[in-house]
Amino acid sequence: MRSIFRDFSYDYFDILAHPKEQWYDFWQTYREKHPKVLQEYMLKNNLNESTLKEKLESLERRELDKLSQYWQRVGAAEKAKVLKTLGKRADALHLEREDFVIHILGGLGEREHFIIPTSKGNVVMIDLLGCWLSGKIEDFPSIVFGALDDFIEYSHVHVRHFMSDDERRKRFSLLLHRLPTELRDKTFDEKLATIACFLDKYVEHYNWSGFYLTTNDRLLSLGAFVGEPTEHLEIPFGSGICGQAAETMDVFVVPDVSKEENYLACSLKTKSEIVIPLIKEGQVIGELDIDSHFPNGFGASDREFLEKVCEALIRS
Ligand code: SME
What we know:
- With 316 residues, this protein is α+β, with helices and mostly antiparallel strands.
- The chain has two domains: 153 residues, no CATH class; 151 residues, GAF domain (Beta-Lactamase).
- Helices cover 48% and strands 20% of the residues.
- A hairpin with a 3-residue loop joins β5 and β6.
- α9 packs parallel to α12.
- The longest helix is centred in the N-terminal third of the chain and has 28 residues.
- The protein is globular.
- The mean pLDDT is 93.
């Protein structure tokens, strides 16, 4: 079978060869070896350089040592079990389509796996530290097959940036269908966090997805988001794209942010932006803000979809 399943954990465990003060420097080298995956991993975990440093400082060498020893002892056997089952499930997984690879890596331990789209296909990243900290590493094949089930479900609805508006529309409608279930029995804040994760996960060209909420004094205050941390924690009405959308109570689509004068930059990677005000009983109670690393990232289908997402939130 072609190598869709690869263990790169040795690159990660190299961290143990360095004193803790050098872990951040180590991470730069590690990142050069897996640039796309680790860059997306940072965004999915709301990490910038300073929060990355904090996270690395809070990692315990003792835990990493234990994990490394454990993986040296059982890794080969666990991988053999996975390969055997992969072989049996090859047809069901359509492995010949080559649209995904599974990479065993190490991260900062937030979750057991992440799905990371790249220009060469999708990477299902297994974070060994996440598996270790959740206590599930002892059933490693279940983690891998759970991640694959998640990937299969995802591949049916995933919206790629190169899709036409018509193709996007079909997938957006599948996503909208799922949204009420995702929001059920959650508090308002939990709903905001769920939507931010949902949009980030399923739409490739949504690279910062988050909410601002209106405070009494015509100020927008940052709520749940997924993406690079922003310095714009509060934005007055009228200021930036967000403030203008709040003032006009209208959707604001910016195909090229470099052409906007009243624009507050969050990241140099951002090329386009859309802001949808959340309107309840005639008042702007907040807004959904999405940044894209793709120029002209938001077509008519995106606008329709995001307006419906906001309606579903307000109704729920
Ligand atoms: N670009 C926005 C600021 C918010 S960040 O994109 C997260 C604006 O101009 O209002």
